[in-house]
Protein 1
Amino acid sequence: MKLSSNWDIIKILAWSDFKLRYKGSMLGLFWSFLKPLLMLAILYMIFSFIIPQKIENYIVFLLLGIILWNFFVEATSISMHNMISKKDIIKAIYFDRHALVISSNFNALLTLGFNMLIFIIFMIILRVGFQVYFPIFFAYIILLFILSLGVSFILAGLYVKYRDIVHVWEVVVQLLFWLTPIVYSVTSIPQKYLAIYMLNPLARIFNDSRNIVIYHQAPDWPSLLLTFIVCVIVYVIGYYIYKRQSRYFAEEL
Amino acid sequence: MSSDIISTKGNQDILLRNYEIMEPIIEIRNLSKSFMLSHEKKETLFENIIGLFHRKTSYEHFHALKNIDVKIEKGDFIGLIGSNGSGKSTLLRQICNILVPSSGEVVVRGRIASLLGLGVGFQGELTGKENVYLYGVIMGLSKKEIDKKYSQIVEFAGVKNFMDTKLRNFSSGMIVRLAFSTCIQTDPDILVLDEVLAVGDQEFQKKCYAVFEDLRKRGTTIIFASHDLDTISRFCNKTLYLKKGKQMMYGKTDKVVKTYRQEIISDNA
C-alpha cells in the first residue's frame, strides 16, 4: 500500500484514538503503566508461590512477556473495535481502508512504547545489564508488529461480516496465552513437541527476545529469518483478505 | 478500474490532462446496484452455519439503481432530483467509490471531495479541531496543508469559539457548516453534495451559493442532490431525475425540473 499518502491519516487516527482511550478516566495515561504492573504482580505471585518456576531473573522475564503480549492482544482487539466505531467515516468517505487497521496497531504500539520505559527501568533496577546485541530486540518488535498487523487485517476484515469473530478470538487469545512462553520458559516444553510448538511465531519472538535482552545471548539468526518469513506470510494473507472484504464494508456496516 | 483512478493520486493529474478535452470527467456506464435484503437477517457466523442447513431464509434483491448511464463533463454543475428512496444517495456513493457496483461501472477522472449525509463521518468524541484534521486528511489533504488552511476553514464555518469543544455538543447546522468548509478547502476536481445545505441557516446558504459561483468559475465539477428545485434551477446546467432507481430523464435543468414538477402533481392527483 502507499504508506506515504496514507501516513497522515494513520498518524491522526492513531493519535486521536490513543487520546480517546484514556479520556474521561481519572488516572488517564497512567493506566497504560499500571496495567502491565498489576498483571505482573498477579502472575508473579502465582508463578513464584503456587506454581514456582525455576527461571533466572523471573521478574523481567515475566514483564517482557506481559508487555509484548499486551501489545498483540490490544492491537488485534482495537482493530476489530475500530471497524464499528469508525462506521460513519467508512460509510461517508472513500479512503484506503487499510489505514484503519494500521492506525489501530500504531495506537497499541504507543502503549508498548510507554511500557517499554517501565521495562527498561526494571532492567536497570534489577541490574540485568545491556549487551551489544540489544538492538536486535527491536527487529523482533518490528516482526511482532508485522504479525499483529496481519492478524488484525484478517480479524477486522472478517469481523464486519461475521460478528462472531470477536467471541471466537477471545477464546483463541486464551489458548494462545498458554501456548506462548509468557509465564513459563520454552525449556519446559517436552522435546518431542518442541518443533510444533515453535511454529507459533509468537513463541519465537518471545523466546528469542528474552535470550537477547535478558540472557545476553548472541542472536539466533536462522530463527530470526524464519520468524520474519512467517510474519510476512501472515501479513500478506491478511492484507489481501482485508482488501477483498473492505470493498463491501460500507454495505455491511 | 474506477478505484484505481481514484486512489492513485499521482496519476490523476496526468489522466486529467490527457482526458480533459475529449473524455468526460465522470462516466457512469450502465450502472446497476442491488442490495440483498434477507428477511431474516443473518449476521453472525453461527446464524450462517445454521443457515447452511436451513435454506429457508428468503432473499429479496432490492434494486437501488437500474441501468444508469450518464456522462458528466468537466465543469458541469449537475443537479440530482427524485423523491426519497429514488436512489440519489446510492448513486452518489457509487460515484465516490464507497459502494461496489452490481453491474456496470463508474469511471472517475479526478479527485473527489464528498459531503454525504449529516454525520459526514465526524466523530462525536473528538473536538471540532481534531475532526477538521481527521476529515481533511481522509479527504486527501496533508497535515501541513490543513495547518495552513485551518483558520480559513474555521472562519468560513463561523464556529470559531467551539473548535475546542467536543463535536457532540455541536448543533447539526454547525456540523454541516464545518464539514462543508473543510470539504471545499480540499480543492477537489469534483464536489459531491448530498442535500446537506438544507440544515444550514439563510446566512450560511448565501455563503454557500457564493462558493458555488466561485467553484463554477474555477471549473470544478459539482454534483448536487437536493429537493430544493429553486436552487437546482439556479445553479445546475444539467439535471438527472431518478425514480425508483431508474434514470427518468437527464439533460438541461429547465426541462428536467419542469417534467419532474408535472409528474409530482400528476402522482399526487
Protein 2
Amino acid sequence: MPICAYVGEMDDEALLDRCRRGDRDAFTPLVHRYQDELYTMALRLTGNPADAADVVQETFTRAFRSLPRLRGATVRAWLFRVAVNCSHDIHRQRSRRPADPLEDAEGRVLDLPDPGLGPEATAIQRERADAVRVALLALPHDFRVAVVLRDVNQLSYEEMAEALSVPLGTVKSRISRARGLLAAALRQSSAIFPRAEEAW
Amino acid sequence: MVSGHVEALFSAAYDGELSPDARGAFDRHLAECSGCAAAFAELTTAVDALREQPTARMPHPVRLPEGSPVPERRWFGLPALLPRGRRLVAGLTAAGVVAAAGVAAALVISGGSLARDTTQSAASSGSLAGPYSGSAGNVSVLPQVSVPSANSAPPAHSALCASQTLGISATSADQIPDGFNNRVTQDDGITDVILAAPSFDYTPGETVDVYARIIDDATEAVSLPCTLLVGPEAAGSGAALTVPATAAPATPAGALTYGGQPVLEVVVPGAAVAGETYQIVAEVPAGAGQTQATEVTLSIQVT
C-alpha cells in the first residue's frame, strides 16, 4: 500500500502525532478532511466566499505552525476554534465587498442545492438559501457562531465548548438564544414560511 | 402567548436533550397550548431550513507553508521579529493597580529573553513598580498605555518591557462579558489564554479596554511578563509603533479576581489613520499556564 494512502487513512490523533514529529505529509490529510467543513462554516459566518476561502487558508496556515503543540483537545474542535478566530480577524478587518454569496471570484457557483433538481425547485432552494444567509448575517456574532457550529457543522455541545472556550451552559444558552433569533429573523420569509405569504 | 419557561426548552427539545419525563411534560403542554406549539413549530422550521443548506466546497487548494509543521514563532524570537525601524516606545502612564502581598517582587521579572534587544539593560524596574498601589481584591486604577507621536525618540524599551507583567487570574467564566466580538484565544491544548475587547473598531485617541481570562483546571493565575502594542506595517500615520503596554502586576495565584473588569487599557495613537490595524501582543511564557512559550495577539482597527 502506498505510504500516502496509508497516511490518509489514519485518524486525527495518529496524524497529529506524526505532525508533532515534523511529518509534513501527515498534515495534508487533515486539510482534505476538514477544508470543506471549515469553508462552509466560514461562508455562513461571513457571507462572503472570498473571505471564507481566506479564513480556511489562514486557519490551516496557523494550524500548520501550531498544531504540533496541541495537547488534550480534539483536532476537529481545535480547528474550528482557529477558524472562528480567523473569521473574526479576517472579516472585520476588511470592508464588506459586494459579492454574490453563491459565487466565488471566478463566478463559479459554489453553494448550490442538489443539481438534480428542476429549475423551479432550484429557484426555491436558492430563495431559501438566500433567506437563511440574510437571517444569519443579521444575528449578533456570538449567536451566529453558535448556531452555525451547531446546526451547520453539527458540533456536539462538548465540541462547541471546546471550540469556543466557554462552559457547556453558555453553549446551550447561546444556541437556544440564537435559534430563537434565527426563527424571528426568518418569520417574514415567504421562502421559509410559505403560509405567511398566503395569509395576505 | 408563549410561556417563557416553555420557550426556554425549545432548543433542548429540538436537540432531543430533554429527559423522558421533561419531554413528556413538554409535549403535553404543547398539545394544550396552541401558542407554544406554533412557536416551537416555527423554531423547528427555521432550524431545519438552516440545516438543509448543503456543504460548500473550498474553491481552491489550500497552500501550506514551506517546511515541516512546527511552531512558527516562539516568544524568545518575538522582539527579533519586529522590524527594528518600527520600534518606537512611548512613556508609560502606568497608574495604580492592585498590589497584593508579594507584588513588588513579582514585578521584577527577568528580562533575559529580551536581552538581545535591550539598549539600556540597566533600566530599573523600580520606576515601574512605583505607581502600583492599592489593596488586594480590587482594581483601583487600570494601568494605561498611551502612545505618543511618531516623532518621539525611541527610549530603551526592552528593559521596561521585561519588567511589566499582565496578571490574568482565575478560571471563572465571567472574566470576559458576553457579547465581546473581538476575542482571541491562545490554546496549547491544556490552557487557553484569552484576550478580548468589546469591539474591533476604535478611533484615534480612544481607549481600548482589554479583558482577559485563562481556562485551565489547574492554573488559577498567570503572569504575562510583557504586553506590546504593535503598530501597522503600512505606516499611514507616519510610523509604525511598538510600545510596551504596562499591565497589572503579577499576583499570587488566586489573590486577584478581575471578574468582568478590564485588565489593561491601551490608548489608540492619536496619529493613527483610519484603516490601520494595531495589535496588542501579550507574551505567554512557558510555565505560565502554557506548555510552551508563545504569544496571544488581539487586533484592533482604526476607524
